[in-house]
Each structure stands twice: as C-alpha cells, then as structure tokens.
UniProtKB/TrEMBL annotation:
Residues 19-124 form the SnoaL-like domain. The keyword Transmembrane helix does not apply. This is Ketosteroid isomerase-related protein. Keywords: Isomerase. One of its GO terms (molecular function) is isomerase activity. Transmembrane segments: none annotated.
C-alpha cells in the first residue's frame, strides 16, 4: 500500500503525549493507557494465534485484555522505549522488554510499535516483536 500523506506533514499529537502513553505502558497503568485511546481504539498484541497476534477493539476490550495480561505480577515486564517518531497521524517506536523469569534469569525481547492517531488520541497500537528460537 502506498502512503498518500504529505512527507512533511505536522504530527497530530505532541511528543509529550506520546511519551506519556509509553510511560503508561512501562508502568502497567491500564487506566492511563485506555484514557489516551479513542473509544474504538485498536491494540494488536505482538503474540497470539493469528498472523496479527490478537486484536483488541474498544476501550473496554483493551482494558480487559491488559487486566488479564498483567493480573499475575510475575508476568509483568518492564518496557524500555527507544527512539520514537511522529509524522502526521502516524508514529512508531522501538522498545526492549525485560522480565525476570521464575528461575531468576532475565528474559529480553526487542520489538517495535506502530501507531495511528485520531483527534489527539491513540486510535491504533500495533505491536511487533522479535521471536527467539
């Protein structure tokens, strides 16, 4: 698909908003995350049975998915965001996720998120990650 957006288009959200949204993910702040998404927002997890992982649509569905994902504190990981970029209604960022395994070792995963913004909120967060093995 070819993008028809102007390559010098001004971002639809401020970098400070983008940073707050990422901080909410790093802190497992479910209410913070869903409050910054559109009512019909989409979160595609980087894992799941479908080629796109698992698609969650709408604030309540996203809230429920995150509650389930982070219910067990041992499953929580720390997201360390790298560079982030904004252009028009799109954004992307790199990240590293670290989690302590039951045996005490640290599991590290690298990935990237792709975003679409509408009316100053996150309309889509599409996550991808490297698979080890």
């Amino acid at each position: 698909m070819v993008s028809t957006s102007d390559p010098i288009e001004r971002p639809q959200v401020e970098d400070s908003f983008f940073a707050r949204y990422q901080r909410a993910w790093s802190e497992c702040d479910i209410e913070g995350i869903v409050s910054m998404m559109t009512p019909d927002g989409v979160y595609e997890a980087s894992f799941g049975p479908e080629p796109w992982g698992v698609r969650h649509v709408g604030r309540e569905t996203i809230r429920a998915a995150l509650e389930e994902m982070w219910r067990d504190p041992s499953r929580r990981s720390r997201h360390i965001y790298g560079d982030r970029f904004l252009l028009g209604d799109r954004g992307f960022s790199e990240w590293t996720s670290e989690r302590t395994e039951p045996d005490g070792t640290t599991a590290v995963v690298h990935g990237a998120d792709f975003y679409r913004f509408t009316d100053g909120l996150v309309a889509e967060k599409i996550a991808y990650r490297k698979v080890v093995g």
